[in-house]
Amino acid sequence: MQQKKWWHHAVVYQVYPRSFYDSNDDGVGDLAGIIAKLDYLAGLGIELIWLSPVYQSPMDDNGYDISDYQNIAAEFGTLAEMDELIAEAGRRGIRILMDLVVNHTSDEHPWFIEARKTRDNPLRDFYIWRPARADGSPPDAQRSYFGGSAWQWDEASGEYYYHLFSRRQPDLNWENPGLRREVYRMMNWWLERGIGGFRMDVVDLLGKQVDRGITSNGPELHSILQEMNRATFGSRDVLTVGEAWSATPAIAKQYSDPARAELSMVFQFEHISQTFDPEAGKWKPRPFDLPAFKRCMAKWQTALDGEGWNSLFWNNHDLPRAVSKFGDPGRYRVESAKMLATALHGLKGTPYVYQGEEIGMTNVRFPAIEDYRDLESLNLYRERTAAGMPAAEMMKGIYQNGRDNARTPMQWSGAAYGGFSHVRPWLQANPNYAQINVEAALNDPDSIFFHYQRLIRLRKESELLVYGDFVLLLEEHAQVFAYLRRLGGQALAVVSNFSGQCVECVLPVSLRDLDGESLISNYAPRERLGQTVSLQPYESFIFAFRCEDAD
Ligand code: GLC
Ligand code: CA
Predict the structure, then answer these.
(1) Cα–Cα distance, 492 to 470 (Å, whole number)
(2) What's the CA dihedral at 521, 362, 422, 32 to 10 degrees?
(3) Is any atom of ligand 1 closer than 6 Å to the C-beta of 201?
(4) Res. 549 pLDDT band, cuts 50 70 90
(5) For position 2, what pLDDT does the model report?
(6) Which of 80, 164, 425, 439 gives 413 a disulfide partner, CB atoms 3.0 to 4.6 angstroms apart?
(7) Is the pLDDT of residue 339 over 90?
(8) Are 386 and 302 a contacting pair, CB within 8 Å?
(9) Whose CA is nearest to atom 7 of ligand 1?
(10) 318 lines ligand 1 (CB under 6 A)
């Protein structure tokens, strides 16, 4: 069995600071706002906060464009408040994960300001520069993820620089040892302040080799991470999680096998990408296919068992709201949100809850593109409608998969702006805050919030939930996701109906007519599992029983 870690039992909560809570009524969430809500988070039971970037930044990409890694953006607060957040969270048993965005900086970072001055500037090589082709065009046809060429012409120094995201996010050159040393120094500075680890932005891009057109999974990626581990967090008991859209199970093992001393785990996105069109990507959503999803999850559960670690998530600040994407945001919002929580938290790995997920916040449909703020949506809307895509079709993609779905202000109460602020927020609140809000959730013992609280508590208490093996059941069933977790003669059956219909499923012979107990459910608890299990719309439960042949 693998070496135990404190974070195996923990649940992480992601805070998107801009949208969490505005303490000083300027319409933007801030650090003091997070401190004010720490008791709420402690009540939920989470043990880590992944803090999306709060560093100094011109906010071209809401802070994922950093101009000073060792300072806090004025709109979010001060370094003293950051220290206070670390300390106040610590007092409540909560650690802070900083978002490490080192694939690129802001174009306002002093390194880039220096680097672009002249071609022989000592910091020039911290970034990626190439001459124009004879006709003045970019060195090659590589594209930015946010639309347009990956190359931006720099008039003053007469070369192109490379940017995989916006042109205001120039990519750092990880082949430069001086750059790597500077980043490690900065990471240690944060570790010294007492943080609980890092979430690493687009970590799979760090080993890129631009001239060979290699972006993700470059040949040096894992040696870079091993070097980083030795130089920074390796000697400390922290959690590190890399964002890796390109990870396969084999690659995820390389990142997260403790023997290789790289990261604790990665976010993989295979279950998410399944809902995107293979060619047109997220702007052309594909319907959710449960059997394919089950095969995917089972593959990851099995592949990483004992030799790595999974992260478990439905959504984050880049993705649509879980209940809108995978559940029913209408009639069965409460049932389906609880079902999704159970289906995910029953798995082996570390669960991540994105702010508002615990009250079942939903996607938003603003009527006009002008109501949106996310530069990815805005850029691609402009680019694709100009290329002939009907505006209505692009809006449909934005409604389903746009990033602002996750970024509308946290809904604290039924008061104006959802209680997020007393003034109009930077991005409008979802009008459904009148019904869906924290205050209402805390007043209802049957709420989604308390369901999450129970799941989080179960994970703290149950070795079986944390370390039990995984066995997929009913592989081909079109509506039901069911699996076993087994450890030392004990087992859990986690059974979830992903549909709004009543369905029946027939369990394998070895599981029929079992006595046991429901650890959690979103309908009436069960004391027995019959041969045929009838499930209500979006019903799900975790059923605990003794099982002879498991170990
Ligand atoms: C990651 C972040 C996303 C950001 C991008 C560039 O994908 O999660 O929000 O825009 O990297 O930093
Ligand atoms: Ca504020």
Answers:
(1) 10
(2) 60
(3) yes
(4) low
(5) 73
(6) 439
(7) yes
(8) no
(9) 202
(10) yes
Cα-Cα-Cα-Cα dihedral sign, residues 436, 13, 495, 446: negative
Q: Ligand 2 centroid to 429 CA: how many Å? A: 15
Q: Is the CB of residue 156 less than 8 Å from the CB of residue 94?
A: no
Contact yes or no for 139/131 (Cβ under 8 A):
yes
Question: What pLDDT is stored for residue 550 in this prediction?
Answer: 45
Q: Report which residue type is found at 132.
A: A
534, 328 contact by CB (below 8 A): no
Cα 474 to Cα 374, 469, 506, distances in angstroms: 40, 17, 8
Ligand 1 atom 5, closest CA: 64
Q: What DSSP character marks residue 136?
A: S
User: What is the distance between the alpha carbons of residues 484 and 192, in angstroms, rounded to a whole number?
Assistant: 41
Q: Is the pLDDT of residue 323 over 90?
A: yes
Helix (H) or strand (E) holding 496: strand 490-497
Tell me what pLDDT residue 513 has. 81
Which residue segments constitute the domains of the chain, with CATH numbers given?
A: 7-96+310-461 (3.20.20.80), 110-162 (3.90.400.10), 466-546 (2.60.40.1180)
pLDDT in tens, 384-395: 999 999 999 999
Give the mutation target among 104, 144, 165 for probing the ligand 1 site: most ligand atoms within 8 A of CB: 165
Q: Which residues are catalytic?
A: 201, 243
The answer to whether the CB of 61 is under 6 A from ligand 1 is yes
Tens-digit pLDDT profile for residues 194-220: 999 999 999 999 999 999 999 999 999
DSSP letter (8 states) at residue 23: S
Across residues 293-298, what is the average pLDDT?
98
Least confident of 10-14, 44-48, 240-244, 272-276: 272-276
Interval 366-413: pLDDT, tens: 999 999 999 999 999 999 999 999 999 999 999 999 999 999 999 999
**What residues does 265 pair with on adjacent strands?**
241
